[in-house]
Structure formats: C-alpha cells, structure tokens
Amino acid sequence: MKQRIITGVVAAALFVPIVFYGGLPFVLLTYFLATIGLYELLKMRNLTIFSVYGLLSTLFLWVILFPKQYTHVLSTFNYSKTELGIAFILLLLAYTVITKNRFTFDDVGFSIISAIYVGIGFYFFIETRNAGLVYIFYSLFMMWATDSGAYFIGKATGKTKLWPEISPNKTVEGSIGGVACALIVAILFVLFSNINATILSLMGITVVLSVFGQIGDLVESAFKRHFNVKDSGKILPGHGGILDRFDSLLFVWPLLHFFHLW
C-alpha cells in the first residue's frame, strides 16, 4: 500500500500540471503513455516493439493518435490519416513475406488491433482535453469513484460473482455499488462545475460510462488471463503498467465524445 501511495503521488505531481497546461506538452505526454501501452500489449504476446514490425506498429499508433488540431501538417503533404494508416497495415502484411512467415498473419492482426485499441482510447483523451478540463476531471473522478465503490462495496457485501472466468474477485454487488458512487460524482459535477449537462442527462450518461468503464477493465483482465500475466507492465510500482491504470478510461473517453457533451 505504501508503494502504491508513493507512486500515485509522484505520478500525479507529473501528470496533473501537464493536463492543466494542455497544448503540445499534453499531446506528447499522451503519445508517451500510448506508446508504453502498445509496448505492454506486444510484450504479452512475446513481441517486441524494438523491431521492424514494432516500429511499423508504433508509427501506425502515432497516426491514429494524430490530433485534429494538427491535421494541417498532414494536408501539406496531401495525405490523410486514413491513407497513412492503410500504408502501415500493408507494410506489416508485407513483412510476413520478408520474414518468411516468422512474423505471422496472426501477429499482424494482433499488432493492428493493439494499435487501434490503444490509439483510439488515447486519441479521445486528447479530444476530451481539447473540450475542456472539466470533462477530463469528470471522467477521472467518475472512474475513480466507480473503481473505489466497486472495491469497497464488493468487499463488504459482494456475494454474486460478476465474471469469475475473467476476474474472480469482482462481484455484481460491487459493480452496482461502483455505478452508484459514479452517480454521486455526476450530481456533484452538475451542481458545482460548468459541465454542459442537466442532472438527469449526466446521470444517464454516467451509468453508461461507469458500466463500460468496468467492461474496459474486464477486457484488459481478459488479455492478461489469456497471456498468463499478472500486470501489463512494471512502470508504475505498486500499480502495474499503463494499461492497468488506463484500461477503463480507454473505453470511457471515446464514449464520452460520442455523447456530444461539448
């Protein structure tokens, strides 16, 4: 617990000022976090980012992450994000031939899906910050409340297993408790912030986001169980890897955008 607290304090001291500042430093931070996330996923499958296919996968990820406010840079070269993404997919497929199938079609599929999974979530992290700090903090506090509520309420009252094949410690009671705690956060944000929503609409959105945030957590748990690893990485002592910390939010940020709160 002591290690978790120390890591949390240090990470917050580095993370929060950059989130407040925004702009290019925030974009670069997001690129760093996403790249580590891709590294963690590839490592689960015994693939390395420090390779030709790893470089191609990383460049594909960076194309997905490319923020809307900088697309004019691509337009000067008469290319779009879609065109560049297709190019990197074709190069990954071609690499299976160059390696005489040592890098297989399955590896290509895993690399592409990994980049898309991580890239889409972190791309909408950038878009959420561009919409305003209030939406970043709403998403963070809402998921922290969900996670904390699910843990403590599940520990106190949990009897019915939620999905034991994937995460044996999670319970239905804890999951419902997490949603209830998230709703408290939603009400507080409507009352004490300038978030663009009524209480009823934000409560409805929060229920969906809280549920899908928990699904995002289970998705990463399924990855780890499939590949027989405890944590996605070790970059955050006491917490695990980047994916261990952002798995829920990788589902929340795109959905938050789809609700058109801003």
From TrEMBL:
Keywords: Cell membrane, Lipid biosynthesis, Lipid metabolism, Membrane, Nucleotidyltransferase, Phospholipid biosynthesis, Phospholipid metabolism, Transferase, Transmembrane, Transmembrane helix. It is an enzyme of class 2 (transferase). It is a multi-pass membrane protein. It is found in: Cell membrane. Pfam families: CTP_transf_1. The chain crosses the membrane at residues 6-34, 46-65, 77-96, 108-126, 132-153, 174-193, 199-219. Its EC number is 2.7.7.41. One of its GO terms (molecular function) is phosphatidate cytidylyltransferase activity. It comes from the Bacteria. Its main location: membrane. Pathway: Lipid metabolism; Phospholipid metabolism; CDP-diacylglycerol biosynthesis; CDP-diacylglycerol from sn-glycerol 3-phosphate: step 3/3. It catalyses: a 1,2-diacyl-sn-glycero-3-phosphate + CTP + H(+) = a CDP-1,2-diacyl-sn-glycerol + diphosphate. Belongs to the CDS family. This is Phosphatidate cytidylyltransferase. It comes from Neobacillus ginsengisoli.
